[in-house]
Amino acid sequence: MKVHYFQHVAFEGLGYIEEWAKANGHQLNATKFYEKHHLPNLTSFDMLVVMGGPMGVYDEKEFPWLFEEKAFIKKAIEADKTVVGICLGAQLIAETLGAKVYPNKVKEIGWFPIQKSGHFFFKSLPDDFVVFHWHGDTFDLPRKAVQLASTEACRNQAFLYNKKVLGLQFHLEATEKSLQEMLDNGKNELTAGDYIQTEKQILEGKKYLEENNKVLENLLNWLK
Q1: Using CA atoms, how far apart are residues 123 and 114, in angstroms rounded to an integer?
Q2: How many domains does the chain have?
Q3: Does residue 149 contact residue 122 with C-beta atoms inside 8 Å?
Q4: Contact present, 219 and 123 (Cβ < 8 Å)
Q5: Neighbours of 134 (CB within 10 A)
Q6: What is the CATH number of the domain that holds 123?
Q7: How far is 6 from 78, CA to CA, in rounded Å?
Q8: Beta strands at 101-116 and 128-139: parallel, antiparallel or unpaired
Q9: In terms of Cα–Cα distance, which of 88, 103, 99, 74 is closest to 165?
Q10: Could you tell me whether strands 101-116 and 145-150 are parallel, antiparallel, or unpaired per DSSP bridges?
Q11: DSSP string, the chain
Q12: Tens place of pLDDT for every residue, the chain, 224 residues?
């Protein structure tokens, strides 16, 4: 399978998705918006993965490439491609599908449990499955999308649209390396808050990584 991914900052790469792709013999190509870049031809890939980043979907003035990225995501969905969005990626997909994206009442940074919906997609997960979050924005559920998970701090944490488009607010792809990179580049956000953990607490959550990666592997295999 040919997988193309959109990366917005150098420190938020594919993480475990890269390991999954290589283990399964999938071809990887990228558009890195923080470098000189070009968008792929729609016929050149089977799956589009849209990664996270510290910017918001509404920051077009500072990051004008957001306009072209959103337009391309819309075309990919209309072309019936498999599309996976993580954090900012999920927010971009949500907006592309007509949903509102806006600052959440609180930031959610650290390891917190998600409450799954009754949808079969997360059926095998424990009722309170702990995942890694790093987001301040949220989104309304896109029309015709199925809600998959929520948390105490943020209602819409995951959705599935048309059985081929997956949005995840949280980071199942996190690895020890990517976790440290996010911490190194975002420590200023670790302020006091009900849903913001300390660096020490976040690093202690490395015990959840393997299980999170396995869940993501199963989701990706189902989607392909």
Answers
A1: 13
A2: 1
A3: yes
A4: no
A5: 24
A6: 3.40.50.880
A7: 18
A8: antiparallel
A9: 74
A10: antiparallel
A11: -EEEEEE-STT---THHHHHHHHTT-EEEEEETTSS--PPPGGG-SEEEE---SS-TT-TTT-THHHHHHHHHHHHHHTT-EEEEETHHHHHHHHHTT--EEEEEEEEEEEEEEEE-S-GGGTTS-SEEEEEEEEEEEEPPPTTEEEEEE-SS-S--EEEETTTEEEESS-TT--HHHHHHHHHHHGGG--S-TTB--HHHHHHGGGGHHHHHHHHHHHHHHH-
A12: 999 999 999 999 999 999 999 999 999 999 999 999 999 999 999 999 999 999 999 999 999 999 999 999 999 999 999 999 999 999 999 999 999 999 999 999 999 999 998 777 888 788 889 999 999 999 999 999 999 999 999 999 999 999 999 999 999 999 999 999 999 999 999 999 999 999 999 999 999 999 999 999 999 999 97
Two tokens, residue 181? 């990179």
Domain membership of residue 149 as a residue range = 2-223
Q: Which two structure tokens, joined as six digits, stand for 64?
A: 């004008």
Residue 112 near residue 131 (C-beta atoms within 8 A): yes
Q: Which two tokens stand for residue 210?
A: 């393997």
